[in-house]
Specification:
This protein is an alpha+beta fold and 536 residues long. The protein has three domains: 178 residues, FAD/NAD(P)-binding domain (3-Layer(bba) Sandwich); 168 residues, D-Amino Acid Oxidase, Chain A, domain 2 (2-Layer Sandwich), CATH 3.30.9.10; 121 residues, Alpha-glycerophosphate oxidase, cap domain (Helicase, Ruva Protein, domain 3, Orthogonal Bundle), CATH 1.10.8.870. Helices cover 40% and strands 22% of the residues. The chain is built from 18 helices and 18 strands. Strands 3, 4, 5, 6, 11, 12, 13, 14, 15 and 16 form a ten-stranded mixed β-sheet that branches. Helix 2 links the parallel strand 1 and strand 2. The longest helix is centred in the first third of the chain and has 20 residues. It starts with a helix and ends with a helix. Bound molecules: flavin-adenine dinucleotide. Flavin-adenine dinucleotide (FAD) binds next to helix 2, strand 8 and strand 16. Flavin-adenine dinucleotide binds next to helix 2, strand 8 and strand 16.
């Protein structure tokens, strides 16, 4: 469905639900509701996953750190969080097999007493995962820890503990959720901002949206509105009721991307305790090394910037962890994401706020979902849609189907897709691996574009293809330059300089597809350059 077709349907129809926010939470809700047979609209004021959902650590996890808190504080909330997270981790890996996979993680240990302590914690983690476990945790000698993660500081190393979690591609998962929701009948559009909640006799009856591309306002009629705007949640709640007390405390988490020499291709590292008592991950990701994250109280912003203080913090920990020198010039990209944490006035430390989710129904019928994490997006969606059905007296055709639903691209045997790419489409082994890991069985459609006029690579040193730009525009709702360069392929997250080099070619391809005039092209270029200079 093209954007103008979506806009026409949004103006003409009456929906069961308008879901506001096209990140993990909103896209998951749109998919859940549409697949139950409800009539659903999904509106996003920027691009899908432009908020927090493209800026995660990309782990599908129960949360080892929450388990430690559960045990130390006898906290049922934290315990449930880990148990639910591990259950959802299993479903996530099953339902998005091309986008998520198990990863082994090494925790280095420099004090003898920590070995049994960490090992015991991870055995409980395995136990809670039950038959959805990804592999057994085990103790490593110092020599084996170094063999698995050779960059580690060797001096004083006593050993390590190896355990398993999941890793995934957040931007691709987000767009897959949107497209799967569309397959089930949801009408989804990016660049539509909800600027007003329409009411009849004090009850919400629709929304007024501003089309941020065309500058036009229009109304969408519906029975219920779901506020899934993540860190912006309080803004929409206060549009509904100016006296609503804040529900959220927002905290910023920064990641750095370094090149591949800082991590082995198949193993991540967990620094179990940073100087402020947190956990730090150093992970192989998309042929690079991902390092994160920080946790600082923050204001809400559409394009949060990584501050000097946050970057220095991460570099300092890298230097303390590695025998390799790490300098600022090793950083290929840095970005910040905002955690939407449910407010607890008793807790000043944002790292200690529970990552559980919370659903609230206002007097006029705004259903707000806050908190949670990427791993549990499906469960959050199920809970929210259950509550929406009763709050707005909706009549679904089915019960929730998402526990057994594969997202678009994930159906079938990926080995066969890979073989077909190589033997029928003449694609190289490396390109086949990249396409399968990005598009699943839809890789064949991308490969057809390679054959029909878009054979080139986008930029040296990265696997991304011109054909992917065309596919993003034709099939994946990309309408702006950075939609492609940041959120259909993760180039801007990985490598700012390479993104600068790919900009001109991507602009030309998009301009031809979308018939952009000179003015629009300059506007797109200027906006992309601003994002690369100031923060994604
Ligand atoms: C640093 C960091 C690391 C993380 N790592 C992990 C991890 O490894 N694993 C994990 O499971 N979770 C992780 N999380 C948590 C996870 O990323 C978030 O819980 C999740 O992405 C939140 O999604 P969301 O849809 O609620 O918010 P968002 O992704 O921010 O989406 C909300 C959307 O609403 C839109 N919006 C706002 N106002 C309006 C409006 N008026 N009209 C229309 N649209 C609007 C915004 O533009 C935005 O796109 C991490 C979070 C952070 C910050």
């Amino acid at each position: 469905m093209t954007r103008s077709e979506s806009l026409r349907t949004l103006k003409e129809s009456v929906f069961d639900l308008v879901v506001v926010g096209g990140g993990a939470t909103g896209s998951g809700i749109a998919l859940d509701a549409a697949s139950r047979g409800l009539k659903v609209a999904l509106v996003e004021k920027q691009d899908f996953s432009e908020g927090t959902s493209s800026r995660s650590t990309k782990l599908v996890h129960g949360g080892v750190r929450y388990l430690e808190m559960a045990i130390r504080q006898f906290s049922r909330v934290q315990y449930n969080l880990v148990r639910d997270g591990l259950y959802e981790r299993g479903l996530f890996l099953k339902n998005a097999p091309h986008l998520a996979h198990p990863i082994q993680l090494v925790t280095p240990v420099y004090r003898w007493w920590q070995l049994p302590y960490i090992y015991a914690g991870l055995l409980i983690y395995d136990l809670l995962a039950g038959n959805r476990g990804l592999g057994r945790s085990r103790l490593l000698s110092a020599r084996e820890a170094l063999r698995r993660y050779p960059m580690l500081k060797a001096e004083g190393l006593k050993g390590g503990v190896l355990y398993y979690d999941g890793q995934f591609n957040d931007i691709r998962m987000n767009i897959s959720l949107v497209l799967t929701a569309q397959k089930y009948g949801a009408v989804a559009s990016n660049y539509l901002e909800v600027v007003h909640l329409d009411k009849i006799d004090g009850r919400i009856s629709g929304v007024r949206v501003r089309d941020r591309l065309e500058g036009e306002d229009f109304h969408i009629r519906c029975k219920g509105v779901v506020n899934a705007t993540g860190p912006f949640g309080d803004g929409l709640r206060q549009l509904d009721n100016p006296d609503a007390l804040p529900l959220l405390q927002v905290s910023s988490g920064v990641h750095l991307v370094l090149d591949r020499r800082f991590s082995p291709p198949d193993t991540g590292l967990v620094v179990p305790r940073t100087e402020d008592g947190r956990v730090l991950f150093i992970l192989p990701w998309e042929g690079h090394t991902l390092v994160g994250t920080t946790d600082e109280k923050s204001d809400v912003s559409s394009h949060p910037e990584a501050t000097e203080g946050e970057i220095s913090y991460l570099l300092r920990h890298l230097r303390a962890t590695f025998d390799l020198d790490v300098t600022r010039s090793d950083i290929k990209s840095a970005w910040s994401g905002l955690r939407p944490l449910v407010f607890d006035p008793q807790t000043a430390d944002t790292a200690k706020l529970a990552r559980d989710h919370y659903v609230e129904l206002s007097a006029s019928g705004l259903l707000t979902i806050s908190g949670g994490k990427w791993t549990t997006y499906r469960k959050m969606a199920e809970d929210t849609v259950d509550q929406a059905i009763s709050a707005f007296s909706l009549s679904p055709v089915h019960d929730c189907l998402t526990a057994g639903m594969t997202v678009l691209g994930g159906e079938g045997d990926m080995g066969e897709v890979r073989r077909a790419l190589i033997s029928n489409r003449g694609v190289s082994d490396t390109t086949a691996d990249h396409l399968v890991a990005t598009y699943g069985n839809r890789a064949l459609e991308v490969a057809s574009l390679v054959k029909s006029g878009f054979p080139g690579e986008l930029v040296d040193g990265h696997p991304y293809l011109e054909a992917e730009v065309i596919y993003a525009v034709r099939e994946e709702k990309a309408v702006r330059l950075m939609d492609v360069l940041h959120r259909r392929i993760p180039l801007a997250l990985l490598d700012r300089r390479a993104t600068g080099h790919a900009l001109g070619r991507t602009l030309n391809l998009m301009a031809a597809e979308l018939t952009w005039d000179e003015g629009r092209q300059s506007q797109e270029r200027a906006e992309a350059e601003r994002r690369l200079a100031d923060g994604l």
